[in-house]
Amino acid sequence: MIPETNQPANTRRRLRRRRVIIASAAAGVLAVSVAVITIATTSGSNSRSGLIISGCYVQAQANCPTVNWNSADLSGANLWRAHLEYAILTNADLTGATLTGVISGGIIGTPAALPTGWVLVNGVLQPG
């Protein structure tokens, strides 16, 4: 039997096609990975929720009495109903943070910035 002369060309084409498919799949996985990382690191770019600062999660209903958030950037953080009694907030940036329902008696220090409509009175964060 006489071998086909176009067989090596077909094999080369198949290998080339396979390489293109593998390269395209790898590029797709890389693109998706970059997108996920970008979204994870920039979503709500002002949001600090979900971070751990001084051993305490910055999140709604956080239980962080006596936490030291001295000079922490908490702008945009969701601290709804967070327990922050006796927290150290000296120079902390709370501009844009959600503080509704926060438990905050005995706050130590003066924050650098508070959300619009919030004040610190005798160690208590309150609307004002």
Please provide a written account of the structure.
The chain is of the alpha+beta class and 128 residues long. The protein folds into two domains: 1-43; 46-128, Pectate Lyase C-like (3 Solenoid). 28% of the residues lie in helices and 9% in strands. The protein contains one helix and four strands; from the N terminus they run H-E-E-E-E. The strands form two sheets. Strands 1-2 form a two-stranded antiparallel ribbon. A two-stranded antiparallel sheet has the order 3-4. Strand 3 (118-121) and strand 4 form a beta hairpin. The longest helix is centred in the first third of the chain and has 36 residues, at 7-42. It starts with 6 loop residues before the first helix and ends with a strand.
Lateral strand order in the biggest sheet: 1-2
The computed structural class is alpha+beta
Q: How is the CATH topology of the largest domain named?
A: Pectate Lyase C-like
Question: How many angstroms separate the termini?
Answer: 95 Å
Q: Give, in order, the helices and strands.
A: HEEEE
Indicate the proportion of strand residues. Answer: 5-15%
> What's the CATH class of the largest domain, please?
Mainly Beta
Q: Assembly type of the shown chains?
A: single chain
Number of domains: 2
Helix content: 25-40%
Which radius of gyration do the C-alpha atoms yield?
27 Å
Describe the sheet with the most strands.
Answer: 2 strands, antiparallel
Number of helices: 1
Anisotropy-based shape: rod-shaped
Total beta strands: 4
- Name the average pLDDT: 84
Stretches where pLDDT is under 50 for at least 5 consecutive residues are: 41-46
Question: Do you know the CATH architecture of the largest domain?
Answer: 3 Solenoid
